[in-house]
């Protein structure tokens, strides 16, 4: 049990930082960050990998991240943020964001909706803190649209959760976003090389449904 905690709390954030810090993933991060502006809340800030992709229109970044190690890894990236970008941590739990209602122009979630324990609660919180015209930008891996891959995702989901800190293989990301009261504006389904059970992505934007 102790060795599992060491892996989850200390080693996994470093592994994730490297695995999701590649140039290929970086191009996807740049795309999902396009159009962000003003005050942005980022749930699952991680090691700050998105900081370098925020457009200049973003003035204030409010980060939510539970991992102490990930926050420490983010320090160098925050130090190198553009001069006009203010970064501050505002909490540990995406399902309990300590921000006023309708206080953010946009929200960002990358490779977080697959893992966060209370994903419905987190999406409800993002909806709450967004202004009426605010948008949610999301990039995540999840349920494949290939039935053969989907079957393997369901079979291996329990194993994935144990070694990957609660990360799910088979969450239907677009469906979860819509069920939380968002209207999806666009949602692409790019793929990453490697195991197909991990490479089925969702990249999109959504706004609060009227």
Please describe what this structure looks like.
By secondary structure, the protein is an alpha/beta fold. It has one domain: Vaccinia Virus protein VP39 (Rossmann fold, 3-Layer(aba) Sandwich). Helix content is 38%, strand content 25%. The protein has eight helices and seven strands, in the order ααββααββαβααβαβ. The protein has a seven-stranded mixed β-sheet with strand order 3-2-1-4-5-7-6, with helices on both faces. Helix 5 links the parallel strand 4 and strand 5. The chain starts with a helix and ends with a strand. The mean pLDDT is 91.
List the SSEs and their pairings.
Layout: H1 2-19, H2 23-33, E1 38-43, E2 58-64, H3 68-73, H4 75-79, E3 86-91, E4 104-110, H5 119-129, E5 130-141, H6 147-163, H7 173-179, E6 182-188, H8 196-199, E7 201-208
Parallel strand pairs: 1-2, 1-4, 2-3, 4-5
Antiparallel strand pairs: 5-7, 6-7
Average predicted confidence as pLDDT: 91
Q: Can you tell me the number of structural domains?
A: 1
The Rg value, from CA coordinates, equals 16 Å
CATH superfamily: Vaccinia Virus protein VP39
Q: What is the strand tally?
A: 7
Q: How helical, in percent, are the residues?
A: 25-40%
Strand order of the largest sheet: 3-2-1-4-5-7-6
**Between the first and last Cα atoms, what is the distance in angstroms?**
47 Å
CATH topology: Rossmann fold
Helical element count?
A: 8
Q: Assign the structural class, choosing from mainly alpha, mainly beta, alpha/beta, alpha+beta, or little secondary structure.
A: alpha/beta
CATH level 1 class label: Alpha Beta
Q: What is the architecture at the second tier of CATH?
A: 3-Layer(aba) Sandwich
**Silhouette:** globular
Percent of residues in beta strands: 25-35%
Largest sheet: 7 strands, mixed
**Oligomeric state, counting identical vs distinct chains:** single chain
